[in-house]
UniProtKB/TrEMBL annotation:
Known catalytic reactions: 1-(5-phospho-beta-D-ribosyl)-ATP + diphosphate = 5-phospho-alpha-D-ribose 1-diphosphate + ATP
MF terms (GO), sorted A to Z: ATP phosphoribosyltransferase activity
Organism of derivation: Streptomyces goshikiensis
Residue span, ATP phosphoribosyltransferase catalytic domain: 49-205
Pathway membership: Amino-acid biosynthesis; L-histidine biosynthesis; L-histidine from 5-phospho-alpha-D-ribose 1-diphosphate: step 1/9
Entry protein name: ATP phosphoribosyltransferase
Domain Histidine biosynthesis HisG C-terminal: 209-280
Alphabetic keyword roster: Amino-acid biosynthesis, ATP-binding, Cytoplasm, Glycosyltransferase, Histidine biosynthesis, Magnesium, Metal-binding, Nucleotide-binding, Transferase
Function field: Catalyzes the condensation of ATP and 5-phosphoribose 1-diphosphate to form N'-(5'-phosphoribosyl)-ATP (PR-ATP). Has a crucial role in the pathway because the rate of histidine biosynthesis seems to be controlled primarily by regulation of HisG enzymatic activity.
Listed EC numbers: 2.4.2.17
């Protein structure tokens, strides 16, 4: 059986399970389940704290894991990112009370509160900043109000938590994160390797299915080159003759985010019966 770690709670948990379901894997029905065997796919899912997942994967006891890129870096574990999953996006930033610092260079001698000591220590060392770090489990924004630190370093998604605490970000983002699939560097899952590759192919299929739509339309043969320039497809569009002399039917995948603009441009070009349909699953 292929053994895969999935976040058991927190920001990544629901989206990770939803994506695995879309990829055709069984997922736990209750948040308290710690292990789920999917016999049809010969996969065993272990629901673990996202912070611990890189440690398990680097130990070799689990073949693959889903965690955050920032948590992978934070762990310092011997594991590497093999696929970015596009959800759980965040930036990692420093913040202070307005006026306390203009730049990270001003942090010398200050104390930084964070739940991500590994990332902060690495960044301070690389930037030559002499600051102390105090580890807190969460709600680090409050550390400033309570005088435990003058700087916080934390995950920022919408920025609401920082705003509510009256803090402002300082310097460039330390890192940008999203959910990722990780495995041991150079690892070959042995007898499970084919299953591991199939797992990654399925997740890539879900990502592509979400990012693209299928577009069909009819256009005059003389407009085909212009139309194909708008809808080149991933390799090349399918072009079929229509019963009407001088017209063709075209089918191509287009990026979902650009679908409306492409439909407008095709219409201007003279294309008609322009339809888009969702892609539920794919293998490229
Ligand atoms: N708003 C957010 N808050 C925290 N983490 C977030 C957020 N958005 C995305 N993430 C990502 O989720 C991962 C952290 O998840 P984790 O479960 O450890 O913390 P959490 O979501 O704050 O949950 P909890 O506070 O219950 O521990 C990181 O990869 C982080 O970048
Ligand atoms: O930019 P935002 O959208 O506000 O999200 C970021 C905040 O959310 C998380 O806290 P969480 O609610 O998980 O509480 P915690 O600090 O106790 O983990 C994180 O630690 C930030 O505080
Ligand atoms: Mg949290």
């Amino acid at each position: 059986m292929l053994r895969i770690a999935v976040p058991n709670k927190g920001s990544l948990s629901d989206r990770a399970s939803a994506m695995l379901r879309e990829a055709g894997y069984q997922q736990r029905k209750e948040a308290k389940e710690l292990v789920l065997v999917d016999p049809g796919n010969a996969v065993e899912f272990f629901y673990l704290r996202p912070r611990d997942i890189a440690v398990y994967v680097s130990s070799g006891r689990l073949d693959l894991g889903i965690t955050g890129r920032d948590l992978l870096v934070e762990s310092g574990a011997n594991a590497e990112e093999v696929l970015a999953l596009g959800f759980g996006r965040s930036t990692f930033r420093y913040a202070v009370k307005p006026g306390w610092a203009r730049d990270t260079a001003d942090f010398d001698g200050l104390t930084i509160a964070t739940s991500y000591e590994g990332i902060v220590a690495k960044h301070l060392a690389a930037s030559g900043i002499q600051a102390s770090v105090v580890h807190l489990d969460g709600a680090v924004e409050t550390a400033i109000e309570l005088g435990v630190a003058q700087v916080v370093a934390d995950v920022v998604e919408t920025g609401t938590s920082l705003r509510n605490a009256g803090l402002e970000v300082i310097g460039e983002p330390v890192m940008e994160s999203e959910a990722v699939v990780i495995r041991r560097p150079g690892a070959d899952a042995g007898s499970q390797e084919a299953k591991a590759r199939q797992f990654l192919r399925r997740l890539k299929g879900v990502l592509v299915a979400g990012a693209y739509v299928m577009m069909d339309y009819d256009c005059r043969a003389e407009d085909l080159e212009g139309a194909v320039a708008l809808t080149p497809g991933l390799e090349a569009p399918t072009v079929s003759p229509l019963h009407n002399e001088g017209w063709v039917a075209v089918r191509a995948m287009v990026p979902a985010a650009e679908a409306q603009r492409i439909m407008d441009d095709l219409y201007e070009l003279g294309a008609r019966a322009i339809l888009t349909t969702a892609i539920h699953a794919c293998r490229l």
